Amino acid sequence: MQSNWPQVIAWIGLSEGGYVNHKNDPGGPTNHGITKRVLEQWRGKKVSIAQMKALTKKEAEDILKARYWDVVRGDDLPSGLDYAVPDYATNSGPGKAIKDLQRSLNDMGAGIKVDSVIGPETMGAINKLDEQQIKELIQLYCERRMRFLRSLKTFKTFGRGWTKRVMGNRTGVQTDDIGVIDRATMLASKYPVPNIPAPQNHGTAKGEPEKPNVIDALQQPEAWGPLGGLLTSLGAMTQGNGPFQWALAALVVAFIAVGVFYAIRTIQNADPT
User: Fold this and answer.
1) CA-closest candidate to residue 104, choices 141, 158, 130, 69
2) What CA–CA distance (Å, rounded) separates 81 from 141?
3) Are 223 and 214 in contact (CB under 8 A)?
4) How far apart are CA 133 and CA 121, in angstroms?
5) Does pLDDT of 47 surpass 60?
6) CA nearest 111: which of 103, 119, 120?
7) How far is CA 114 from each of CA 100, 121, 150, 211, rounded to the nearest angstrom?
8) What residues form the membrane-spanning segments (predicted)?
9) How far, in Å, CA of 205 to CA of 158, rounded?
10) Burial profile 98-122: b = 16 or more Cβ within 10 angstroms, e = fewer
11) What's this model's pTM, rounded to 2 decimal places?
12) What's the Cα-to-Cα distance from 205 to each of 15, 75, 181, rounded to whole Å?
């Protein structure tokens, strides 16, 4: 919900903490939940470690809203879910967070497409749920998130912090615990915010999301956008029937194949946050 944004961003900020640069963190240098690569994308230029350390909370919150909250449609999600999903997105990427939301909805019988986009189908499935079902969804979602985190090779290093972030000090939902699962469920239950325990920072690193498979990557416009000119050239070259035209066409096809390959590699290796 739009009205929950100030509280959600405050909680995410407490979970993320300030500047960290752990050697085993796949996200690299991070400040206020923003990785160096994301900050460079946001500013459109390279940034130094000094500039990373100088990142203001205000700019970080602007990035978190544009890159995570807005992408997962935080304004439209019901109370509680509007915290669980953006927190997952900040930690492991919006695509992974949305897919696991869709999978959790399917665990409840929604039967929707898992496509990393919160569109009409996904929102329709969410809007059919009553308050009790929203709380059930939050719990399924956080449990699925934990299964993903446990599967990561860096869980041995960062698992304790991740577990405290998502589940708190005890598994399940408690009104006096500090996990995302606890606060999100209390938000959904309309607990007064001052009565909800705040999160603690545990040196949380970025969780690596699943890399897109080839089919997922090919469905993204980044894989095809740069090749439009080559496709146009191919059409023009094949207007003739001579060997020269066909040789040029074959060359263009080869360039297209190489271009698609590297576009897919770029998408698959994109920033995990």
Assistant:
1) 141
2) 9
3) no
4) 17
5) yes
6) 103
7) 8, 10, 21, 15
8) 244-264
9) 7
10) bbbbbebbeeeebebeeebbbeebb
11) 0.75
12) 10, 26, 19
Distance (Å) of CA 125 to CA 17, 34, 70, 110, 232? 34, 31, 19, 6, 41
Q: How confident is the model at residue 269 (pLDDT cuts 50, 70, 90)?
A: very low
Per-residue HEC secondary structure of 25-94 comes to CCCCCEECCEEHHHHHHHHCCCCCHHHHHCCCHHHHHHHHHHHHHCCCCCCCCCCCHHHHHHHHHHHHCH
Distance, in Å, from the CA atom of 5 to the CA atom of 31, rounded to the nearest integer, reads 20
User: For all residues of the chain together, what is the average pLDDT?
Assistant: 83
User: Given its phi and psi angles, is residue 200 left (phi above 0), alpha (psi -120 to 50 degrees) or beta?
Assistant: beta
204 dihedral zone (left: phi>0; alpha: psi -120 to 50; beta): beta
Token duo for residue 241: 């029937």
In one-letter notation, the amino acid at residue 14 is L
- pLDDT at res. 1: 86
Based on its alpha-carbon atoms, the radius of gyration of the chain, rounded to whole angstroms, reads 22
Residue 50 is which amino acid? A
Is pLDDT larger for residue 204 or for residue 30? 30
Q: How far apart are CA 53 and CA 44, in angstroms?
A: 18
